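My current task is to audit a protein record that another person submitted. Alongside the sequence sits a line of tokens, each denoting a local backbone shape. Where you disagree with what is written, explain briefly why. This is what I was given:
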Amino acid sequence: MTVRSGDHDHLDGNALAGPLSEVFAVDVTAATGRCVNCGRTGPVAALRVYDRAPGLVARCPGCDHVVLRLVRTPDAAYLDLTGTVSLHIRLPPAAGEPGT
């Protein structure tokens, strides 16, 4: 969802799906993160993403604290998760694990 009005000029966290797919082998937008500032937990897809800077800045929808920054250069990606306490990413069972 894109929101472009007044003070709420942001995209939702699904805007991170493509850029983060270059770094991670799984869809990180489905992961659950915890904000370092207010402790809110929720899916990365629910973050407020601002794309009018060099890169993407994702903010907590609860307290507006910066949770994630991603900058892509021609030959590298810079990912800053300083505003994230944890990131819970569901993975398929490893080969040889029960359920495979």
Observations:
- The CA atoms of residues 8 and 48 lie 9 Å apart.
